[in-house]
Each structure stands twice: as C-alpha cells, then as structure tokens.
Amino acid sequence: MTSTRSSQAPAPLRRDYPAGSLAFPHRDLLGIGQLERHEILYLLDEAEQWVQLNRQSTKHSDLLAGLTIINAFFENSTRTLLSFEIAGKRLGADVVNMHAAQSSVKKGETLIDTAITLNAMHADAIVIRHGSSGAVELIASKVDCPVLNAGDGQHEHPTQGLLDALALRHALRERGHNADDFTGLTITICGDILHSRVARSNILSLTALGANVRLCAPPALMPAEVEAMGATPFDNFDAALDGADVAMMLRLQTERMEGQFIPSAREYHHLFGLTKDRLNRAAPDALVMHPGPMNRGVEIDSEVADMLDRSIITRQVEMGVAIRMAALDVLTRKARGVDGWGDRAPGTSGGGQWV
Ligand code: CP
After folding, report:
1. Paired strand residues for 13
2. Ligand 1 center from residue 340 Cα (angstroms)
3. d(CA 78, ligand 1 centre) in Å
C-alpha cells in the first residue's frame, strides 16, 4: 500500500443522489428506521473513500480539524467506542470519551442534566450508547449538535446495521457479485432477536436493500412484530439456514433478560449454535457474520468463527471505522459550512432536517 497525505484522501464514490444535504437531510443518526433506501446507500458509498484511506499506511485527514466530538457511553463497548474514537481522530477532530461509570451519573445526575452539560461544552457531535431504548432520541432533543446513536437498549444500533451492509457488500464484490444492494440474497439472522438492537437495525437495512431476511430464535426470544418488518420467523435453525447466503449470528443478551429465556447454554448451542456441520445446510459458499462480542461455543463454534474463507467477522470490525467516519463527516457538514449543506429548517427540533 502507498502512503497518503491528508489532502490526498480518496474521492467518494459518486452516484446520482439528490444534491447537497437532500442526499442525507437528517441532523441526527438515531436509527435505520428514519432513513430512506437511498440515504442508506449514500452513507455506504460515502464510507468507501474511508475504507481506502484506512488501508493506507498514513490514515489521516484534516476534514474535521477544530471540531469536538464527545463519545458518551452509558454501557460497555469495545468495538463501537474504539471505532468512533478512531474515526474522529482519523478525520482530525478532537475526541473526548465520557464513560458513565466514571461520570457524575454515578452521583445521581439525570440523563437530561447530563445532556445539557455536554451541550454547554459546544460539542460538534455527540455519540451516545445507552441501555434504555429512546434515551438517545431524548438527548438529541436537548442538544444543539448532531447526535449519533451508538446503541440504545433494544431499539437500534444504526452504525452496526450500516457497517454490516458495507462488510457484506465488500465480501460479495470479491466473490464477483454485483452487490451494491442485496436483491435476491437470503440472510438468516439467528439468536436473541427479542433483545437485539443489532437485529432490528439489520432487519431494517437489509430488507431496504432487497434481501430476504429470515429470523431464527427460540419462541421466547422472537418478538411479535417481525413479519410486519418484512422478515420471516423460524424456530428451527436447520430450516432457517436451508440454502441461505449469509448466516448472521447474535449473542444471547443476558444483561437484558429478566427471568430464564433458555433452559441452558448447552441446550441453546445444540439447537441454535452455528457449527461446521450446520453451516453445510446453507449455500455452498455462505458467509458467516457476527457483530461481536461473541460467546464462542454458545451461538457460534470457534472453527466457524475463524473460517478464513467464510467468516467476515473481522471485516465487520474494519468497516465499522469507515462507516463511522462517513457518518461523522456527513452529519458535521453544516457546522463546517460545506456547500449545499445549508441552514437548518426553521422550527425543526432534534432529529429535524437540514435544508
Ligand atoms: N457490536 C458492538 O456493538 O460491539 P461493542 O458492544 O463492543 O461496541
């Protein structure tokens, strides 16, 4: 790979999108559910330039120089927190991390007072992870800058949905598929669908991009509304995997479970764990995905997670940085005075649109 200087960052992929901010007319990124299909594609295409930059020896741009980004994480994270931090720094921003465990939240400060405090520091973007569904939207309504949802309760994890789509696009492209969208592809998502914000964001993004989405879980871990979201429910993993092009495995979210949802991890693995034998039921070259963190030996066996020709789990992590760079770039264009990304429409509140 050759090295690059900040002024030589690769150009973004260009398609026929609406001009300027009409390509992505949102102040915040709260969920895939707020996005049109072309807006999902816009973020994926914007991320391509950052995939290239991140693979070069010098990974730096000055695009966000002078901007301050606050990562406020009220729940644990490895991938999302680090990749947002790396994304902001690679774009030249000043990045500050607030861990709830070491903050005044522990002294009883409310979420709204925390939001007002962050706002008073004139952040240019705030990235939030919170254990309560809707908490990120609440903060967005209290602050003046763009807010990015890094996972809120059981609701959404939009950058995970986007990075999964980008990882899949790249893996399919390498296999010779024309994979800018996923029309005709069958994707099986298996695991704790009920508690999973990753599942929700992926169902929304993958169906918007044309995929047939199958969901598989024990009945107690399958929410009621999945068919209304365009997905097909299964409680038999072998049937759900039959001929699938992709197996996306999810962890049991024990931290969100009240009561016992499965008899034992051993029985869960027997019925819903992805083993090498079980993978043979999918299409011959089916891809394996997992958002992490993995519980090896429960929802996925190590010999499957580590299959070099099938598993794209580390690729998902790689794409996470690029997607988060794209999201930070796009959402801060107004603050940076980028042509065509004008003033906010009068009277709109948090989550409103730019005009
Ligand atoms: N996939 C994901 O959100 O991982 P982290 O919890 O480590 O951020």
Report:
1. none
2. 34
3. 6
Question: Residues 245, 206: contact at Cβ < 8 Å?
Answer: no
Residues of the chain with CATH 3.40.50.1370: 20-156+316-331, 158-313
Cα–Cα distance measured from residue 67 to residue 57, given in angstroms and rounded to the nearest whole number: 24
The phi and psi torsions of 155 (rounded to 5 degrees) equal: -85, -80
**Fold classified for 20-156+316-331:** Rossmann fold (3.40.50)
* Closest ligand 1 atom number to CA of residue 150: 3
Task: Tell me the whole-structure pTM to 2 decimals.
Answer: 0.92
Q: What are phi and psi of 112, to 5 degrees?
A: -65, -40
Confidence of residue 343 (pLDDT cuts 50, 70, 90): low
Instruction: Give the Å distance between the CA of 79 and the centre of ligand 1.
Output: 5
Name the token pair of 61.
């741009």
Local confidence band at 352 (pLDDT 50, 70, 90 cut-offs): very low
Strand-by-strand arrangement of the 94-99 sheet: 94-99, 68-73, 125-130, 147-152
pLDDT 10s digits, 26-60: 999 999 999 999 999 999 999 999 999 999 999 99
Report phi then psi at 136, rounded to 5: -70, -40
Q: What share of the chain is helix, strand, coil (3-state, %, to 5)?
A: 40, 15, 45
**Cα(293) to centroid of ligand 1, in Å?**
6
208, pLDDT greater than 50: yes
What CATH homologous superfamily does 158-313 map to?
Aspartate/ornithine carbamoyltransferase (3.40.50.1370)
Would strands 147-152 and 125-130 be described as parallel, antiparallel, or unpaired? parallel
Name the DSSP letter for residue 344.
B
Ligand 1 proximal residues by C-beta, below 6 Å: 77-80, 151, 157, 160, 291-293
Measured by CA distance, the residue closest to atom 5 of ligand 1 is 77
Whether the bond between 346 and the residue before it is cis, its omega within 30 degrees of 0, is: no
Q: How far is CA 323 from the centre of its chain?
A: 8
Phi and psi at residue 214, to the nearest 5°: -105, 140
Phi, psi at residue 28, to the nearest 5°? -120, 165
Atom nearest to 83 CA in ligand 1: 8
